[in-house]
Structure formats: structure tokens, C-alpha cells
Design goal:
Largest sheet: 5 strands, mixed
Strand content: 5-15%
CATH topology of the largest domain: Tex N-terminal region-like
Shape: globular
Distance between the termini: 57 Å
């Protein structure tokens, strides 16, 4: 089925663009590849738009599978009419599809089916028509002890059960109530009796009410978590009289005795069938919406963390700090290779500062250390202070590094494979050092959910979360580019067109044949065929290659164009790359072909200006405020240096060096009104904050960024 028209209309994108993207996806193209190297084909759609097309196509594909199953079920049972088939084929949402199928869905025995078995459907039909009849008189004719109808009231009750089911399955009624529930419902939350002390962390929601349409993602997910953990009860519903009024406007056709019975059926049907059904729908709808928002926040935070400024290729000492067990010290070369590991004990209970200082200075001299990375966990600030008090280290950069996830990496299969002969403390220290050198290259080895930049990440749809985070990591890796001769298997895995198998094969080839000398040599790697080469080649870099374009973001399919540009200017290719004056003489229109247009040509010229450029920011030094190491050191009104560790809908968490992040609430982020913290800050940003309040017992620190 061709979904391009629907997707184009919904996403406000040209249908020809949607068709082109779907064709590329079918051929195995990745989103980074399409966004970077197929701009002429897609009309320069960005990664967000491309992912939107892919995801909506997937939804419609799944919808069509459900549509086919429904049609098959109706056909088998002889219930499929031409008009019903047309309605089902035209349904564009799962809700609409299920509403159409609801009256025909095979049911367990309901009160309505039991009433029908008693022969009461004709009575229900007569009352529902609301002609000028006397329901009680008519009902008396349906008394039948053999079928279990013993009285007029039993007959009328059974008829109302049947009418209630008709009402609850009516598409118009469900549609109108859906609108009422989404617009006019109140979400309320209460603590379960006897759970007050046990569920203290949810005390904000012990007696909570707010309009459902305005509840933010984080609050909804918090209430749902409290409910799932057995501390809270939550409900979503409008005023009952409003809902009943909506239904009466649809079903009450007259003012007579029959219509009074219909009104009773409406009330019964609403309370017993429609209200629970609509509340369930609202829970699903709101959860999906909250998931979408939380996943977006997580992905945005993840992108900012992955794209944090790298220190670069320096000789680094990394320290995983600790008190009783000592500080694990490792030394790494410019490529992050482990050279040596030691343990020092500068803190209590051993507190052997003299020996620790001697060992640090000896290692710094032996390995020409240029920077020291200190993990920000337990004893992190104390270790940093110890190092800064060593006069001979004044010329060495000392930097605190967020070690979230380092312990996860150190216990992982990846770490064991890389360092089979070392324990987890050494692996953790290596991860801290490499994270300073290149955050992206190191963080791809860790499950994104373990890095600590999410919002209720364990409560959201895990399939959607994984897709979003995989997209984000792949986008970042390909935006930066990967040095094929030094990259880890984990980093290569995220390169467009590769994956774990080809990444492993590339490393195996590299180990057996030495460094790659040209991009074309990649074609010799096992199972790396023409399609995979097309997808990955532009994102892989070969430093100091014979052809300088092999270290740039220019795709091999465009090399001939760049060579023609150089030839037309009468220079060699290296001259064109090195001379900006020559680049300005290029007339792009001369090189337009039926497959390559101005967008790609402009990208090529930009690459010539800065071959293989890193889009990440330059590294900036940062240090926490001296003398502040624990929450007990904090006083209201203090101004402190901080670094943003996580962004949520309600504010930003900031590390101020006391082993407990403080919260800058949304209302305290700026002197102007802002809708979301991301308007002001990003993850890993250095900020100035002021202490508003400190609650040591609850481990809560309130901060402000207002000036």
C-alpha cells in the first residue's frame, strides 16, 4: 500500500520527497547517509524529518497488518459488508480501526449477551427507537421463567444492558467522549491508606488534582510510577453529568417513557462500560505523549553529552578516586592505550600523602603526562584538592570528569574483552581517562540508559527509547566522523551502513593487514559490499592518506568532481585543499549534473575549506569552587561554579562538586519566561549558580541561575 500521500500530508512534506525517502530506506540507506549525501534526492530533508517519515511509515505498516487481520476475521464470520470494508480500509489510526471493529469483536459473555440469550433484544430495539410505547407494558410480554426473566424489572434491566452495550460501541459516542475526556478531564491522585510513610517520596501526590490536558510529562510519569509501586491511586475523568449530557444529546430522541429508559441505559452504560474504557484510552494516550516527551528530553541530553568538547590526543593520567580502597591510577598514551596502573592512598584511613605524591610525580615524568582526569564520584573533590596542592603539577591540567556509567562499562563484556587481565577498577579508571580525551568514542561503549541523563527512562516505552537513542548515537558518530585505523568496534558499529559484524571484520582486517591506506581498501573487508561501502565510506577517515580526500567528509563518489575542479584551476588536488583563495574561484554551477546539485557541491567546498573538521566545540577548562566538598559546606546565598549534568522538563540538575546534584527549577533558570530548560542550558554546560536552600536529610539542594 502506498502511504506517501498520508505521510506527506501529516508531516507537511512533498509527496515526491516522501516517496524518494521510502525508496532509499527500502534500498538500505541510513538516515545520516540520506541527510548528508542524498540532499538532491530528498530535497535536503534533515535527520528529524527523515526519521519522522521512517517512523510514520512503520506505524502505518503495523496499522495495515492489524487492518488485514480484522478484515480476515470479519470475512471468515460472514460479517463483512461493502460499506464496513470501505470504512475499515479508510481508517488512518488504530483507535478509529478498533472503534469500527468493536461491535463485531468476539466477546466473552457479557450482561448484554446474556440478555440477548433471554430473548430481550427486540424489547431493547423497541425502547431504543423511542416511539410512543409503554416500556413496562411491553416488558411484561417478555416475562419467561424458562429463560430466566421473572419480572418486568428483570426484562427492562436486560434491555438496558443491551442498549448500554450499543451505546458504548457507537463510534460517534466514543469519538465525542474521547474529546470530552481529553479536554475536560481532571487527573487526580491519592495515597493508598497505610502507605503514607512507605511512599513518602511521592508525598507531593498524596492529594493531587489538576486538569488532565495540562499535566506535564514528568508529573504524569511520577504519578504512574507511584501507582505501579502500590503507593498511589490515580484517576482520569470529567464530571459525570457532562459525559452523560454528551451521550443524551446523541441518543435521546424524544420525551416519553421510552426515552427515560434510554437515559437510564446511558447512565448505566457510561459508568459501567464507557467511563472505564475512555479512562484506559486516556491513560494510554497520555502515557504515549509523556513517553514521547521524556524520550525527546533524553535524546537531546544524550546528544549534548556525546558532542561534548574532547580534550583531544593528549597523554593522560586518569584516577578513579576512593577512600578505604585507595585511588586507582592509570596512564594512557595519546591513543588511549593503557601504559601502566598503580594505586595510591592519599586519604584516610591510610592517608599516605607523601608516598602518593611521589608516585604521581614519578608517573607524570615517566609518561610525559599532559592532563589528569579525576572521576567525580566518592573522594573525587578530595583527590582533586590533593593534586592541586602538589606544586610540581602546576603545568598539568587537572580536570574532574563525570564518571556516570564508568562502573557499568568496567563490568561489561566490552571491557572484559578489551582488558581481560585487569580488574574492574583499572577498567573504570581507563574509561574516565578516555572520556576526557574523546567523550563520544568512550560513551558509545556504555548502554545510554546508564549514563544518567534521562527522565524516567525506565518507565517509558523501551522499544521507542532504544530507537531514539540509537538514532542519536548514530547521528553524533557520523556527524563527527570516525578514524578507521584507531576506532573501537563499538564506535565503528554506529557508522552508517556497518553494524557489529562489519565493525568486527574491519578490526580483524586491520589487525591482519595493518592500517588502511585508502578508503577503497575497505572493499577488501569480508562481507563489506558495494552498498555498505556507499553508506559508510564518507563517514570513515584515514589520516595521512595518500589521497587527502580520504581524510575528509567528501564521499568517494564525488572525488572525480573535486579532481575536475582542481584540473580546471590548473592545480594539484593538495593545492586546492590548502589554498582558500583557489577555493573561492570555484564556480559551482559548472559542476551541476543530473545527480549532483548545489547542496552537495556546497558541502564539498565546505569540506575543502576544513577537511575532516570536528563539529564539536573547543575544550574549556573548568573547576569547582574551592573549599566546597560536601552538602554541609553549603550556605544559602553562596555563588558556585557548576556543570549541567541532566535536563528535565521541570529544570536542570547541576553538579557543584558536593556528590549531590542541585536542582535549578524551571522558574529559577532565567530572568525571563522560558517554556523549557533547553532554551537556556545544555548538558555539560558550565554555569554559575547560587544556593537557594539545602535539605541535608532529604539530600536536596535548590539552586538559582537568576541574576
Amino acid at each position: 500500500m502506498d502511504y506517501s500521500f498520508v505521510i506527506a500530508k501529516e508531516l507537511n512534506i512533498g509527496r515526491n520527497q516522501v516517496q524518494a525517502v521510502l525508496k532509499l530506506l527500502e534500498e538500505g540507506a541510513t538516515i545520516p547517509f540520506m541527510a548528508r549525501y542524498r540532499k538532491e534526492v530528498t530535497g535536503s530533508l534533515d535527520e528529524v524529518q527523515l526519521a519522522g517519515i521512517r517512523d510514520r511509515y512503520s506505524q502505518l505498516f503495523q496499522l495495515n497488518k492489524r487492518r488485514e487481520a480484522i478484515l480476515e476475521s470479519l470475512e471468515e464470520r460472514g460479517l463483512l459488508t461493502d460499506s464496513l470494508k470501505s470504512e475499515i480500509n479508510n481508517a488512518l489510526s488504530l483507535t478509529e480501526l478498533e472503534d469500527l471493529y468493536l461491535p463485531y469483536r468476539p466477546k466473552r459473555r457479557t450482561r448484554a449477551t446474556i440478555a440477548k440469550e433471554k430473548g430481550l433484544e427486540p424489547l431493547a430495539t423497541a425502547i431504543f427507537d423511542q416511539k410512543n410505547i409503554h416500556p413496562e407494558s411491553l416488558a411484561s410480554t417478555y416475562i419467561n421463567p424458562e429463560k430466566g426473566v421473572l419480572s418486568v424489572e428483570e426484562a427492562l434491566s436486560g434491555a438496558r444492558d443491551i442498549m448500554a452495550e450499543w451505546i458504548s460501541e457507537n463510534i460517534n459516542a466514543r469519538s465525542r467522549l474521547r474529546i470530552l475526556f481529553s479536554q475536560k478531564s481532571e487527573i487526580s491522585c491519592k495515597v493508598l491508606r497505610g502507605k503514607e510513610s512507605e511512599g513518602e517520596k511521592y508525598q507531593d501526590y498524596f492529594d493531587w488534582h489538576e486538569p488532565f490536558s495540562k499535566v506535564p510529562s514528568h508529573r504524569l510519569l511520577a504519578m504512574r510510577r507511584g501507582e505501579n509501586e502500590g503507593f498511589l491511586s490515580m484517576s482520569i475523568e470529567p464530571q459525570e453529568e457532562d459525559a452523560v449530557a454528551v451521550l443524551e444529546r446523541i441518543f435521546v430522541k424524544a420525551r416519553n417513557e421510552a426515552s427515560e429508559e434510554v437515559k437510564k441505559a446511558i447512565k448505566e452504560g457510561y459508568k459501567r462500560l464507557l467511563s472505564p474504557s475512555m479512562e484506559t484510552e486516556m491513560r494510554v494516550f497520555s502515557k504515549d505523549k509523556a513517553d514521547e516527551e521524556a524520550i525527546k528530553v533524553f535524546a537531546d541530553n544524550m546528544r549534548q553529552l556525546l558532542m561534548a568538547a574532547p580534550l583531544g590526543q593528549k597523554r593522560v593520567m586518569a584516577i578513579d578516586p576512593g577512600f578505604r580502597t585507595g585511588c586507582k591510577v592509570v596512564c594512557l598514551n595519546e591513543q588511549g592505550k593503557l601504559l601502566q596502573d598503580e594505586v595510591i592512598y592519599p586519604h584516610p584511613p591510610k592517608e599516605d600523602k607523601q608516598k602518593s605524591e611521589h608516585k604521581i610525580l614519578s608517573l607524570v615524568q615517566q609518561f610525559s603526562i599532559e592532563a589528569i582526569a579525576v572521576g567525580n564520584g566518592t573522594a573525587g573533590r578530595e583527590t582533586e584538592a590533593f593534586l592541586r596542592n602538589i606544586p610540581a603539577l602546576k603545568s598539568v591540567l587537572i580536570i574532574q570528569v563525570n564518571e556516570s556509567g564508568a562502573s557499568v562499562y568496567s563490568a561489561s563484556d566490552v571491557a572484559r574483552e578489551e582488558f581481560p587481565d585487569y580488574d574492574i577498577t583499572v577498567r573504570g579508571a581507563v574509561s574516565i581517562g578516555r572520556r576526557l580525551m574523546d567523550p563520544l568514542a568512550e560513551l558509545v561503549k556504555i548502554d545510554p540508559k546508564s549514563i544518567g541523563v534521562g527522565q524516567y527512562q525506565h518507565d517509558v516505552n523501551q522499544t521507542q527509547l532504544k530507537q531514539s537513542l540509537d538514532d542519536t548515537v548514530m547521528s553524533c558518530v557520523n556527524a563527527v566522523g570516525v578514524e578507521v585505523n584507531t576506532a573501537s568496534k563499538e564506535l565503528l558499529t554506529y557508522v552508517s551502513g556497518l553494524g557489529p559484524v562489519l565493525a568486527t571484520n574491519i578490526i580483524r582486517y586491520r589487525n591482519e593487514h595493518g592500517p588502511f591506506k585508502t578508503r577503497n581498501e575497505l572493499k577488501k573487508v569480508g562481507r563489506l559490499g558495494d552498498k555498505a561501502f556507499e553508506q559508510c565510506a564518507g563517514f570513515l577517515r584515514i589520516r595521512d592518506a595518500k589521497n587527502p580526500l580520504d581524510s575528509s567528509g567528501v564521499h568517494p563518489e564525488s572525488y572525480s568532481i573535486v579532481e575536475k575542479m582542481a584540473a580546471d584551476l590548473g592545480v594539484y588536488l593538495p593545492q586546492l585543499i590548502q589554498d582558500k583563495a583557489l577555493q573561492k574561484k570555484i564556480v559551482l554551477q559548472k559542476y551541476i549534473t543530473h545527480t549532483i546539485g548545489l547542496p552537495t557541491l556546497q558541502d564539498i567546498v565546505n569540506e575543502l575549506a576544513k577537511p575532516g573538521r570536528d563539529p564539536r566545540e573547543q575544550f574549556e577548562m573548568f573547576s569547582f569552587t574551592d573549599g566546597i566538598h560536601s552538602m554541609e559546606d553549603l550556605k544559602e546565598g553562596m555563588s558556585l561554579n557548576g556543570i549541567v549534568t541532566n535536563i528535565t522538563d521541570f529544570g536542570a540538575f547541576v553538579d557543584i562538586g558536593v556528590h549531590q546534584d542541585g536542582l535549578v527549577h524551571l522558574s529559577q533558570m532565567a530572568n525571563r519566561y522560558i517554556k523549557h530548560p533547553s532554551e537556556v542550558v545544555k548538558v555539560h554546560q558550565k554555569v554559575k549558580v547560587k544556593v537557594v536552600s539545602v535539605d541535608v536529610s532529604r539530600k536536596r539542594i535548590a539552586l538559582t541561575m537568576k541574576t
